[in-house]
Here is the input.
Amino acid sequence: MSPKKLTGAEIRDTFIDFFVEHGHTAVPSSSLVPGGDATLLFTNSGMVQFKDVFLGQDKRPYKRAVDSQKCMRVAGKHNDLDDVGRDDTHHTFFEMLGNWSFGDYYKKEAIEWAWQLLTDVWGLKKENTWATVFKDDQGDIPSDEEAAKYWRAQPGFHDGHVLYFGRKDNFWEMAETGHVVFLEISLVCAMSPCCIAHIPAIRRVRTPILV
Here is the structure.
């Protein structure tokens, strides 16, 4: 099966529809200027509107959410200005597609649904898809063998297509410390290991998925 040619709008719509079908509530994008948050000038990631939920300071009437969040990265720790124009993955303004779990599912379901979305819905070739998982180059944090196991368990995924990377490439850190854990087909958080699906020679696929 050849990869489907999709517009940006079609990618957004199929992503949201897929996760709504899997029990997620569609949540509108929050403002680019986060209200009531003095720590940010602009919304710079999909998790911003859910920060208080992760910190236990707010509750939502749902445990699963999906959104397309408008983001701006022109200042602060996550500033992409220096990388814009040097590759095809960095932008100052972009939409971040995210599916979020608030104490509901974790790595197993996140990876299974990511695989289904990438290969069944978007038609990406299974033999061309790789995943990276975290292995601490400093030896302080255990390797993420759980995520590696789930990637290898996906139908059609090649066992040898799991690669291990360290803190520079597979550790997403929003602040110097943190305990909020979520994913980016990856495992992402205020500070956490992550695993990312890659399509070589095309571009990195980064789909935020809470685990």
